[in-house]
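Lab meeting tomorrow. Please check the following:
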Amino acid sequence: MARTKRSASLDSRNKRLELTPGDLHLEQIRAGSYLLYRRPTNGSAGNWLVRWYDPDTRKQRQERMGTADDFAVADGIGVLSYKQATDKAELWFKTRNRFAILAAEGEVVPVGPYSVADAFRDYLYDAKRRGMKGLLITEQTANAHIIPVLGAVAVAKLTRRKIEDWHLALSETPRKTTGKPKDEDPEDEAEDGSAPKAEEAPRPPMSEEETRKRRNTSNRVLSILKAALNHALASNKVLEPAPWRFVKPFKNVSSSRVRYLTIAEQRKLVEASEPDFRALVQAALFSGARYGELTRLRVQDFSARNGSLYIEFSKSGKSRHVFLTEEAQAWFSQIVEGRDSCELLLTRGNVLRTKRKGLVEDKGWAPYDQVYCMNQACEAAGLPPFTFHELRHTYASALVNHGVPLAYVAAQLGHSDTRMVERYYGHLSPNAQADSVRTHAPKLGIGATKVQPLRFTGA
């Protein structure tokens, strides 16, 4: 067991109470690092302070650690014993020494304690340097849900309970809306990265499904917080312990019921859609591509030779080839015939738009253009309200139901592995798996109930 450091005048409350009130008592921990104690002249409990001197810059910093346990029981947080004060001071000195090294290397270091807001500033800078996808939505999420509550908190003072309380409160906060319809997507963020704006009187969650969605959102925000704090830990901006690593997300809230259209309903929807939107719907049902991916397609992205559709810009940042059925190949061949290879594959006629953000070309489809068209088509077809992204679910569900291996389905959708496919469509695969096994498994010829045993004779 390590020996506890002793002090001639500070390590017990009786010794401290004998000191003259108002005087500052200094004790050197090591060269340039000092623990200080001062008791007010009114006779109340004294305060622990730390002082650090940088020999390179000849500057010193002083900060209050907490109240001494002169009259109250030490709790290790606000009221500190001598040992707790020295341990906390040691950690503070390590932080200051590390910041001095980082500052000498040209990095920006905080003037005061390293806060959660500082951690996010460094994390977003590094994410931008690495070209991380979804940087804008990550920053907006942090500004909306993390910085207002935890931004001013020093990372060193974060506790597991504080993060868990924030996580729970976030899950119980009603969803912020923009006041306009949104094509909700359980696995993708908004294509245009627009920041949500709160309504004056948001409606609190009423159903189990709404509660599940809020908890799922809270888990996503928690993962962003953990990523920023882990980056700070890896960058030596903070030291162990890392209490956020022990905060667990809500369980069983990420899977929602996936809706998809039957073949008969798909035909009704196509027939009820206006011509330009009909082509967009058909392309989605034939390829399973996202709305944003479809709106950026060019004529040259369809290859009749390979029977595939090339998705150059995807959410994951990776391109992919979507292989098409013979029916889909014939349809795409018709709509590209005689057209310039650089033209947009799917266009929309001249329409009046109030917002043109994200519009590829004048005749292209802009974010949210599909919402009104989908609502009109569903109403005309006599179908319940259906979002455009659920056409992607329809495509994927059809592949799974017809026995296509989940790895192939994931590749068609642009996922790096089968986790997303298993989460949203895994419940559809047992029957298809059983049919596939019964169809393709070899017949062994060993199922006879009466088998004649072999007879062995001695030599």
